[in-house]
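Q: Here's a chain of 132 amino acids. Please give me its 3D structure as tokens.
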Amino acid sequence: MGKPSEKLVPPATIMAGILLLLIVARNYERLPWKPPPCTFRTLTGIPCVSCGGTHAFQALSRGQIVKALHFNPLATTAVFGVAAWLLIILFQKREPHPPLSPTRRRRRNRCWGTVAVLILIANWIYLILYLK
């Protein structure tokens, strides 16, 4: 990712997908088909890590942020996180950054990977405890 415009592709693509999902969620009741129930929840009786995501997107599409957080905090905050990522890239100064050494890059990636796993676990615990 050398050019600044190349840095826009991942968050812009993800944001376009999110906007499409929000449009679908807004019109969910009028869809001719519905997705099947969660297989994991059907088999185990406990919600999966993404359970409540459809309801969260429906609430977000109506501007009900607190309700969306109740249904799935991770899905809701991910929407705002991607929006922030896109805005940061759009408005950051175009100064070149020195490349990270392979060791620092691995350490940074490992750190972010650990944070991502901990967030997923925390979200899943919340869903198991509070999503009925």
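Q: Can you summarize the key feature?
A: DSSP finds six helices and no strands in the chain.
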